[in-house]
Structures are given as structure tokens and as C-alpha cells.
Design brief:
mainly alpha; 3 helices
């Protein structure tokens, strides 16, 4: 059976702050340099967050299982 993430202890505030930082920085990069670089920056950061969430999934999972 697939272990799911326990959303009761998921740091939602951290995810919102990370998302805002990614959005703001990618907008700045897109306005200064090139829109493709802004999209690439945002996509790379989202992939990094997905990888880190997979890496630290055990800290969010329910330890009572």
C-alpha cells in the first residue's frame, strides 16, 4: 500500500512562502533578462521543492503506522 503524506503536520506556511519567493524571483528574472529564463527558474525551483519533499517525506508521515 502507498504511504500518503499526513497533511495535519505539513508546513503549509513554509510552502506558501516558498511559492511566493519562486513567483517573485521568476517574475524579476523574466522582466530583467528573458521570459524563458524566468520560466526555467520557476520550473527548476518547483522540481527542487518536489525532490526535497520526497526526501523529507518521512518527517511528515504518521509515525504511528
Amino acid at each position: 500500500m502507498i504511504n500518503s503524506v499526513n497533511f495535519n503536520h505539513l508546513p503549509i506556511q513554509d510552502l506558501v512562502v516558498s511559492g511566493l519567493i519562486i513567483f517573485i524571483m521568476s517574475t524579476i528574472i523574466a522582466n530583467i533578462y528573458d521570459p524563458l529564463l524566468g520560466i526555467t527558474y520557476a520550473f527548476g525551483n518547483i522540481l527542487t521543492l518536489i525532490f526535497l519533499s520526497w526526501l523529507y517525506k518521512e518527517t511528515w508521515s504518521d509515525s504511528k503506522k
